[in-house]
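Lab meeting notes turned into a lecture example. A postdoc, R.K., suggested we walk through two folding results consecutively so the class can see how the record format repeats. The first protein's sequence and structure tokens come next.
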Amino acid sequence: MVRIGIIISSTRPGRFADHPAKWIEEVASGRGDMDVEILDLRDYPMPFFDEASSPAYEPSKNEVALRWQRRLAECDGFVVVTAEYNHGPTGAVKNAFDYAFNEWAKKPVGFVAYGGVGGARAVEQLRLVSIELQMVPIRNAVHIQWTVYSAVTKEGKSLGSFEFLQSGAKEMLDQLLWWAQLLKRARGG
């Protein structure tokens, strides 16, 4: 069975990210074909990238970054739950991407996004970063629009009550699983 890390990219107090992270964790766990674990960037308070060199060339010195890298190394793929801030991903998630290199390589990544236009611009930028890190970004993503955000935060609706999100999650997770299994075998796992 493949192990998938669900990364929560927002560290803001009162963040919306907990809703989609818990929802996608339940959806993924309910499938029975992957182990999932939430990786909350609040638990990895790394300073903005301040190493002498990229971890591609030189081991990190920061203890939190080393703990982050060890956790990533245990995963066979990732789902990044990302907010969109000012047409891009959060600074915290970009920093988390920069603090690792080999641990990301040859692993798939999918996205659950929210914000302006369903977080599409944040996902677009993270896909470019993922490719540079030798990851395989999944084509399908789950995009949570503002109307859904309002229904969840103001009306107490569940993300699982929206059929288009459920079918989008299934498609994204199906692709993620296929790539995770293939790449795990190719890495010798």
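The second example is placed directly after the first for contrast:
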Amino acid sequence: MSRSVRVVWDDALTSYDFGPGHPLAPIRVELTVALARQFGVLDTVEVIGCAPADEDELALVHGRDYIDAVRRVSATGGPDLRVGLGTPDNPAFVGVHEASALVAGATLAAAQAVWTGEAEHAANVAGGLHHAMPRQASGFCVYNDPAIAIAWLLEQGAQRIAYVDVDVHHGDGVQTAFFDDPRVLTISLHESPHTLFPGTGFPSETGAEGTAVNVALPAGCGDSEWLRAFHAVVPPLLREFAPEVLVTQHGCDSHALDPLAHLMLSVDGQRMAYEALHRLAHETAGGRWVVVGGGGYELVRVVPRAWTHLLAEVAGKPIEPSTPTPRAWCELVTRRTGEVPPLNMTDGRRPEFRDFADGYDPADPVDRAIVATRKAVFPSHGLDPLM
């Protein structure tokens, strides 16, 4: 399906590290890249390095006063609570600017490869820091790499960019960056803001011309319900919007084992979402697809498997779910974490879902969430919310 693929990786990306005990542990991307290498996924793509985003690139989204503040924190490791650094979510550390700018630079490298035609698809699994605000660190995020990449694409002349965020948390920082810009369609599927950080992402947050789209799903939602909601909202909007580039954020903290949230997806359900977004990239965006990681806090059993499936899908070489995890990788997991590794690439699920076109149940909380979103934004796109 895919003609050319780049994966952006540099071992220095693991320097984005808030310290021992913090949920966003860099071991998750280390183990992901190791697993993808063991499966040969990275042998089928071009792996490229990256440079840190410079100040002008960061300033496409972030205030220069904020960037200066992050630099000062970076030099000393001292907190600056005015910009959200030095909190439990966002501890201050020496080198925070350099580490954050490198993550942003990696996502920029992916966007640049796709925009110039050097690659059809490009991925940075260390990215996806979607909570960072223009002048505030938030939710483990210092610089908002997907928003910076989108802003760069707009600066190059792109007129329609679609961003789909499947992280369990609302993609609030990206929505904020483009809330009043009808050139950017942001779609976020997340756990209800009534039960989860950041407390935003209601269907009523619709932005310019209905281009901010929020699907707020109830706690306990599993594969079938989540996939039903995804297919009821995302494909029709992407087909109507017809983006020049599709940017997708793949936080895998929607998994049932994730310790910070309350959705109940499996790796198998997440893999089906990756397949669907790959198809939609080709159908609606001419194959131009920029992929980033995101949240995910079950560091051994979930993140490496989910994102290895993601990279394999991006590469056009999907991994059969029943495939055993390689022995060498299992030994690495035990050596690095002391935990028992997963033995194969599946949770043993075969998710199925009912199509929304077959009718909806007003007593079902997931169907109510779907209808709320469709009623809020579909008319702005010339779509019937109930059909």
